[in-house]
Amino acid sequence: MLETPSVEKEIVKSKDTELSIFNALEHMGHEQVVVCSNPDTGLKAIIAIHNTTLGPALGGTRMWVYNTEQEALRDVLRLSRGMTYKAAISGLNLGGGKAVIIGDPHTDKNEALFRSFGRFVDSLGGRYITAEDVGMTVQDMEWIYSETKFVTGIPETLGGSGNPSPVTAFGVYMGVKAAAQKAYGSDSLVGKRIALQGAGNVASYFAEHAAKEGAKLFISDIYADKARQLAKKVGATFVEADQIYGLDVDIFAPCALGGVVNDDTMDLFKCDIIAGGANNILDAEDRHGQLLMDRGIIYAPDYVINAGGVINISSELEGYNRKQALNQTEKIYDTTLSVLNYSEENGIPTHKASNELAEQRIAKVGKLKSMYTSTSKISGRLGEMYRLDNR
């Protein structure tokens, strides 16, 4: 069984960086962390491979302005671990990985930087397959693709699936409806008051789904103009960013950055459900997950309902089929209900329920496979370049 204690803050507090890294690897169950540096291009990046029992580690690359290198490390470790559980709970034959590039996505981008990062990805021989994440664009992925074929989410013109956001949002929508079914006995969102935090790609597509069904949306974003534009587009109400937590709503849908359920916000929530597309919504998983359960708030684990993106890009590995990707993403509804029911039956918070279900699958498959070593039987675009050796 994978280790999942909340040890991330130890990374930040420790003065011994080397010791804290190995401590985190041991306790969080990571296989490998790669630090990437190229002063000539300005590249500072970290690639984290969490678990490859089910297959190669797939996960996006995020570009963000981190206050410290330790903060970047903490983020990539949590995100990569989440990808392992996301792939496992979604029934995918993939492991979990993630990468972060330290820099301002608005000012620090250049072709050489991303191509140098692509070379680091390529050096891993397929153990890690990257994709688009926060702060990245399709153009950035094209530059990475110039140096490695271990990239998904590339433009359709290059044989990829393009922007995964629409499919991610559809999965979030399915997860929210499943949570509504559990809370209200009906999955209808007609008339439901939804506080939507975020106005980016995933939030925008989700807002369109919810508004079309008849939900009443309240939208905020740290970039107020984006929130106003989205609110106007879908007939929603704009809300200032610092006011979104205290709204009296049915559903709080965080679709921006993670850590929004924390000590400062916990007492502000006036909702029945928390379900959104952001990663790592719970700042301290065990404690805040338990507090939500104690308060009777249904939490749909983020990596369960935002798995549409990884489902979409993973389909590229065997030849992209959008209809198939959407059909598989629709199953997030049933997966979410299974997690919520398992939580209720076992009297444990929903994030623990989803972890246990994911770990059960990894353990069963792990008895049949050894560690992934970079060659594969995958067919399609990537299958032409490598194969998985399931020894």
Considering the chains and any ligands shown, give keywords for the structure.
391 residues, alpha/beta, Rossmann fold, 2 domains, six-stranded mixed β-sheet, six-stranded parallel β-sheet, 43% helix, globular, disordered C terminus
Q: Please outline the major beta sheet.
A: 6 strands, mixed
Counted by DSSP, the helix tally is 15
The count of β-strands is: 12
**What value does the average pLDDT take?**
89
CATH architecture of the largest domain: 3-Layer(aba) Sandwich
Kindly describe this structure.
The chain is α/β, with parallel strands linked by helices and 391 residues long. It has 2 domains: 8-83 and 95-151, Rossmann fold (3-Layer(aba) Sandwich), CATH 3.40.50.10860; 165-360, NAD(P)-binding Rossmann-like Domain (Rossmann fold), CATH 3.40.50. The protein has 15 helices and 12 strands. It has helices spanning 8-13, 17-28, 69-89, 111-123, 138-145, 165-184, 201-213, 224-234, 285-294, 302-305, 308-314, 322-330, 332-346, 350-366, 380-383; strands at 32-38, 43-51, 57-58, 61-64, 95-102, 128-129, 193-197, 216-220, 237-238, 251-254, 273-274, 298-299. The strands form 2 sheets. Strands 1, 2, 3, 4, 5 and 6 form a 6-stranded mixed beta sheet that branches. A 6-stranded parallel beta sheet has the order 9-8-7-10-11-12, with helices on both faces. Helix 3 (69-89) packs across helix 14, helix 11 runs antiparallel to helix 12 and helix 13 packs across helix 14 (350-366). The longest helix is centred in the N-terminal third of the chain and has 21 residues, at 69-89. The two termini are 21 Å apart. The model is unreliable at 3-19 and 385-391 (pLDDT under 50).
